[in-house]
Amino acid sequence: MGRLLTEVANRLQKKTHLHLMMTGWERRIGIVTEDTKTRWHLTFSKGVATCGAWTEEQTADLIVQGDERQMQMLFGGDELVYAFAREQVRIVGPLRDQLKLDAILRLTCK
Fold first, then answer.
1. Whether 82 contacts 105, CB under 8 Å
2. Which residue of 20, 50, 62, 94 is surrounded by the most CB atoms within 10 Å?
3. Is the pTM of this model over 0.85?
4. How is the chain split among helix, strand and coil, in percent rounded to 5?
């Protein structure tokens, strides 16, 4: 999962037209895989995305929950698979942030 999130962050860096969309959007997205009990975060700060393990002390603005397979489909980069996975996972947080994350992930698809 960590490798996959790093790949998402790298795809975001390569798509320079998305930097304007991310600038000013300071958010931490918590990612919880329910079947393997792992927790990751994808952080957007100063127009850059980073990822890492999510600890109990850190807060999240948006939480994405689902099985690891669903998360791999969500962050994998295939737009059709993404659309299916988006319906399978649970996202908790402000609607505006959910829509922003959805737009960013759709635009990073290969």
1. yes
2. 62
3. yes
4. 45, 25, 25
